[in-house]
Structures are given as C-alpha cells and as structure tokens.
Amino acid sequence: MEIQMWREILIPYQQAVQELVIKFTSIRTENNKLGKYSPVELVDGRVKKISSILDKARKKQIPLDSMEEEIEDIAGLRIICQFVEDIDKVVEIIRSRSDMEIKYEKDYISNMKQSGYKSYHIIIYYDVHTALGKKRIQAEIQIRTLAMNFWATIEHSLQYKYKHNIPAEIRERLMKAAEAAHVLDEELSTIRSEIMEAQNTFQYKSGV
Amino acid sequence: MEIQMWREILIPYQQAVQELVIKFTSIRTENNKLGKYSPVELVDGRVKKISSILDKARKKQIPLDSMEEEIEDIAGLRIICQFVEDIDKVVEIIRSRSDMEIKYEKDYISNMKQSGYKSYHIIIYYDVHTALGKKRIQAEIQIRTLAMNFWATIEHSLQYKYKHNIPAEIRERLMKAAEAAHVLDEELSTIRSEIMEAQNTFQYKSGV
Amino acid sequence: MEIQMWREILIPYQQAVQELVIKFTSIRTENNKLGKYSPVELVDGRVKKISSILDKARKKQIPLDSMEEEIEDIAGLRIICQFVEDIDKVVEIIRSRSDMEIKYEKDYISNMKQSGYKSYHIIIYYDVHTALGKKRIQAEIQIRTLAMNFWATIEHSLQYKYKHNIPAEIRERLMKAAEAAHVLDEELSTIRSEIMEAQNTFQYKSGV
Amino acid sequence: MEIQMWREILIPYQQAVQELVIKFTSIRTENNKLGKYSPVELVDGRVKKISSILDKARKKQIPLDSMEEEIEDIAGLRIICQFVEDIDKVVEIIRSRSDMEIKYEKDYISNMKQSGYKSYHIIIYYDVHTALGKKRIQAEIQIRTLAMNFWATIEHSLQYKYKHNIPAEIRERLMKAAEAAHVLDEELSTIRSEIMEAQNTFQYKSGV
Q: Which of A65, A24, A66, A64 is nearest to A42 (CA)?
C-alpha cells in the first residue's frame, strides 16, 4: 500500500530532522554556556507531509524514482536569527562542518524575491543510520531573521489559500508589511553591537 | 540557609507556571483540532530568578514578609498573538475562566509606554496543590503580538545593561524600531481576515 | 462525521491527562527539591484510542449517550512507585487533594486478581477548561510498583493477542513471572528504609 | 575558575548524549512504524556531574590531563530491553554502525558481578561538532533488562550511601532481590516469542 511505503521512505528524513534540530539548537546552548553571543536564536524542523510531496511531484512532473533527489525539502530546517548579520555567521558555521555537505546555496537576502520574500537557503546532504541501514538524504535549511520569518509564514499561507494567485490588493498590503519588517531589521542592526553586549550581560533568556 | 528557603518558596510558582503553560497552549491545540483560528500563537513561562526577586525587593523597599504579595511577577506567562485583535480575544478567555481570578489588568496597548512598549498585562490569582499543601499564588500574564514581543525582549536587555539609563541615541533607534514593529502589525491587521481564512485552510503549522 | 465528533469529545480528556501528568510528576520534583523521599517514581498518561472506546462500548452494550459516564478510563494515568508501601502514600495524597474528587477505589493489591494482576485503581472526577468551556470528566489512576507494572504491561498485550483466552501453559508461565515480581517487591520492602535514606543522600537520579 | 573550565569541557559530552539518545530512541520509533518488534524499550542518558568526575579522578589517582581519556563514563547512555535476548540484538546494532566506534565491551551478563549486578557495557568513541569545533569523545553504553536496571539503580544508591561497604545483611537481601529479578527475566524469556507477537498485534504502547 502506497501510504505504508511513504511512511517507510520518510523514516530517515524524520531521523535527520531530529538530529539536525539538536545540532543547530546546541549552537545556541553552547554559546550561552560560554557566555558568548549566539547567532542562532531559534531552530525548527519538519518533514514534508506525504500529500504535499505528491502535490509537488505532480506539479513539477517528477517521476517516482527521482522524487527523493529532486524534492530537496522533504526534510526542512528553519534557523531564526536576531539580526541580518547573524545569518552570515550561521552560513559560515554550516560551511565549516564535516557532518553535512552543501549541495548549493541560494541567497534571497541580497536578491529579495519580487514578493518581498527574504531568506538564505542551503541544501545539504546528510547521513543517517536507521533500522533500515545507513542512508544519505537531503535537507533544506532556511536561515532568516524573526521579522522575515513572521512575514514569510503569513505569505506562505496566503499563497496556499489563493493557489499562488494572491489578489493585487492583498499583495500590495503584504509588500508594505514586508517593508515594515525590513525597516525593523535595519533599525535593530544599527544598534546590534549594543544589543549583543546587553544580552551577554543579561544572560538573555528569550520570551519566544 | 536563605537559598534553600527561597527554593521552597518558589516550588508552588514553578508548579503554577507549568500548569498555566499547558492550559494556555491547549487553547491553540484545541482550536487547531476543531479547525478554528486560534488567537493564541505561542505560550512561554518562567519563574523569576531568586537574585532578581531580591533586587526588586531591595529597590522597592519591600519587607520580606510581604514580598510574595507585592512582587506580582514571580510567576510570569507570556502569550504571543499573531494580530493585535487577537489580544482582546485572549483577554476575554482569561476573564471567563473560573480556575483563575483576575487581580487587575493594565492596558499598555491603548496606552503605550513612553519607551514604545506595548503589551497587555493581567495579574491573576491561581491555586496550586504541592507537596506542601494548597496555596494561592499570583502570576503576571503578558499578552502581545510577535512584533511587540520581539521589540520588548530587546528593549528589556538594553534597560538591564544601561541600568534603566539608555543613552539618548540608542533610545531614539529603539523608538524607530518600535514604530516599524507597529506598522508591521497594522499592515497585517488590514488583511487579518484573509490571513485567518488562509491559515484555516492551510492547517497552519508555524515555523516559530 | 463520527471520527470528527470523537476528536471533539476527546479534547477535554487530552487536556486533563496533560494537566494530571504535570500535577503528579511535580510530587516527585518537589520532594527532590525539598531533599525528601518521593513516593512517586514515574508518571505516565494516555487517552484511550477511539477504536478501543468503541470496542469496549460494543462489548459492554453501552449506549452512545452514557459512554462518557460508563467508560471510566477514557483518560488514564499510571503512577509507578518504588515500593509497595509507597502506593498507600500516593493514595493518601490523592484523597487529600481538593482539585480532584474520588468516585471510588479498587484495591487489587490486597485482593490480587486471579491472573496475578496487582494494582491500586482510583476513579476520579476532574474539571477542565477547554475552548469549548468547562467540563467535568472522569479519569482512571492506576498505582503500582515497577515490577507490577512490567508484568501488567506484558499480560495486557497477551490478553489482547489471545482475546482474553490465554492458553494454560502461557498462563502458568505468567503466574510464575508474577510470583517472581512479587518476591522482588517483597525483598526490596525489607530494606526499604535503608534504600530511602540512601536515595536521599544520593540525590537519586533514576535511570528509567 | 575551575568550574567554568569544567563547564566548557562538558559541552561536547552533553551534545553527544543528546544526539545518542535521539539515535537509540529512533530504533524503537522506527521499528514501531515498520510494525516490527523493537529490541530497544527505553533510552536514557546523562552527563556525569563535575563533583563525581573529580571524586573518581581523586580515588583512581588520575592526573588532570588524562581524565578525559581514563574516565570513560563522562557521557553515559542506558538502553533498557524487555528481554535478555534483546540485549544481544542491541549489541549487534551498535557493532554495525559507522557513526560510532567501539573501544571495548564488557559482558556482565554472562559474567555476573559478585554483587548480583548484570549488564552489558560498551565503551564507544563518538564525534561531535560544537561551537568549539569537532571533537572525538568517549561514551559508556549500559544495556540491560528492566529488572536488571531496577535492581542496579537501587544497588548503586546503597553503594553510594555505605561508601562501598554495604553491611552483610543488606547485601544478602540485595542478592535475594537480584535472584528474583533474574527469575522474572527467565520466566518471561520462556514466553518471549508469544509476547513479541502479542506486542506486534497490539501496537504496544508501554506504560513506562
């Protein structure tokens, strides 16, 4: 039965997401313990739902046997940073690790999407050991600020609702909201060094 | 020894925070299960550190035997909403519950603090059963949007660093960041009904 | 649709289980903080699956409108103790609390079931606040030692497999295993005071 | 300050324990998803306390610079199995993985300690990536049945209380309890295949 087959296929992806969430979260925990500023604020992960995988395959006409190679975000990680500048730091950390290999990167921060979307994407290869043996899987890591993430989450649900045909008026409002989000990020960047120091003194324990 | 005494005093507060986090988080879980929009996006709780309690008591000259009555935020809850409008919904829910009693409310949303701080505060009384028996404690609930919370967390650490004397230049930047945060909230409010519907269709699973 | 109706019915039970797990777990946490021995070793909870509820209703010929009253273990809690003597302590704590009301108790420790099953059962009424309002639900609390629990979990799966007709030979083996479990409990009871003291000194951090 | 130095030293061990708990727990999750019996029932991990590390170093006269090599259980994992036979299965899984390397094994099951202690120990090398770079650390994995674990936890606290000089009478009682634990394991082993099948049908969801 197809559902059971997909459940088996997804096992290593679930395992990978769990391991990667632990690994990226520990960047924050460790910096806190060392009394240092952490470029990572929050980490979140998910495995794509079977229905979404099949939708994407149908839309992009991907045959069953190349799905796992071509659908790069079956395992998805999201790393939230406080400041735009922290995003580069996180990218550097990922590049320097030997337990994951970068397939490619996409910089939607320098090159904002037309919609207002900003985010840094990295596709990695990652090895997992499961009850079925060792397997190399792919995962998509999205790195963004809290403001970018807030906006992106909302835009994503609207894209979904309007099947990628968001009405002009709503698109305009979204664009204005995106601008406000970017202003917020820029204003905070100007006092980033003060905030970083403040948070080190404070043993910062975020509310979110 | 004083530290051990404080550890005992804090036991019911820790218990209360755990119970209240479960209770408010369930508002979101339940609405999701019912396929309805949830006014609660995220819930977070903490018990004030012993050192912060003693600092506050010293500064406000509160005698030891009235500390638990006068320091109202030993147990602290934070409820994050997507939209400004959701804050009222959450306040209504709290008012209608019989397992907590409201001491008073403070509306820093209609009446923004001079610093740019916006948030809705409710002080409640709440009964807990512990190894030491039943006890009525107080808790402070802060209700705010994600943008308000982001800003407030940063401002709080700067207040701490500069011992409530933030330099004029930084204060100005903070004020501008607060304005951007409020614009972001306002823009999103104008398309709130579209977003709410979109998230209901989408079975919204937030990234943060 | 029936499944959706059951999902709604189960919401307050899920909420209750979460709250009760927190409440009973805190007995252990608090005693540890106070440097005292905890009669509670482990707490576990679950909501009965919809299919199991319907099976039970069919078998016992319970009409739909009295299911929630007659099926008393829709919400189930399990409290594991180190020693037989601790079970009484936990029963005392439950009897003394005002946030739950006892419907009745069943003592399968003094009166072991023929199968070898030992456990202390308490059915309680408990109030929960949900998105749908306040509701009084029932929950079954099973209190047992680790050895009793280990045995009971295995016996339960065999009852299920053999549809309550476990072959004589296996029943005999189970009976012998139950006896060994009881000997283990008795031997440890004889040195209970030494172990309790040891664990207090040790700041006992159990492996399971 | 020494404490801060130790906090830094322990960071990779904490990271390793978190990753290994996830990895071994997933053996159970995956087998459940595949509808297969899992040899792993429970997984638990801890990092040795700084005070215990220093005690051990003092007692064994280990110099500071070889502590990390000679104290092999700074990172400790415990894997609990339902049946004695499952222990071998878990050992096989560990031997076959390429993300951890075995330093050596100790079989206290075939060769029970004089005290009654039974358990299978494996010391592994494991690579972790931390904020401080990549590091190879050691971890001790203890594999045992639930009954062995129950007994061992109690014996450990008594050893600690009596500073490894447990009075003869208590030692005797412990020995009898160990025998009961072994009888329990043996009786259950005789019906292991029935229980395994039963648990597969049952979609076994253990209480502990």
A: A24
Task: Tell me the pLDDT tens digit for each residue of A163-175.
Answer: 889 999 999 999 9
Pairing of strands D101-107, C133-145: unpaired
- Whether A52 and chain B come into contact, CB under 8 Å, resolves to no
Distance of CA D138 to the CA centre of its chain: 13
Structure tokens at B196: 């709410």
Residue ranges, chain A, pLDDT below 70: 1, 201-208
List the single residue in D with minimal CA-CA distance to C167: D194
D163: pLDDT strictly greater than 60: yes
Query: Is the CB of residue A55 less than 8 Å away from at least one CB of chain B?
Result: no
Q: How far apart are CA C83 and CA C104, in angstroms?
A: 23
Q: In 3-state terms, what secondary structure has residue A149?
A: helix
Which portions of chain C are predicted below pLDDT 50? 203-208
Q: Note if D140 is an active site residue.
A: yes
What's the rounded Cα separation, in Å, for the pair D51 and D36? 42
From A91's Cα to the closest Cα of chain D, the distance in A is: 14
Which has the closest alpha carbon to B131: C92, C180, D162, A89? C92
Please say whether the beta carbons of B10 and B53 come within 8 A: no
- Please report which helix (H) or strand (E) contains residue C67, including its range: helix C67-70
- Structural domains in chain A, sorted by start: 2-202 (3.30.460.10)
Summarised one tens digit per residue, pLDDT across range D102-135 is 999 999 999 999 999 999 999 999 999 987 788 9
Q: Quick one: D3 exposed, middle or buried, by C-beta within 10 A (0-12, 13-18, 19+)?
A: exposed
All residues of chain A having their beta carbon less than 8 Å from the beta carbon of residue D29 are 14
Which residues share a beta bridge with A79? A43, A143
Whether the Cβ atoms of residue D144 and residue D119 lie closer than 8 Å to each other? yes
Record: contact A30-D127, CB cut-off 8 A = no
Mean pLDDT for all residues in chain A: 90
Residues of B in contact with A156 (CB under 8 A): 202
Query: Can you tell me the distance from the alpha carbon of D180 to that of C100, in angstroms, rounded to the nearest whole number?
Result: 38
Q: CA angle B47-A83-A147, nearest 5°?
A: 80
Pairwise CA distance, residues B103 & B140, whole Å? 10
Nearest to C158 among D44, D46, D195 (CB): D195
Whether D207 and C154 lie within 8 Å, measured CB to CB: no
Beta bridge partners of B141: B77, B122
pLDDT at residue C194 in the model: 85
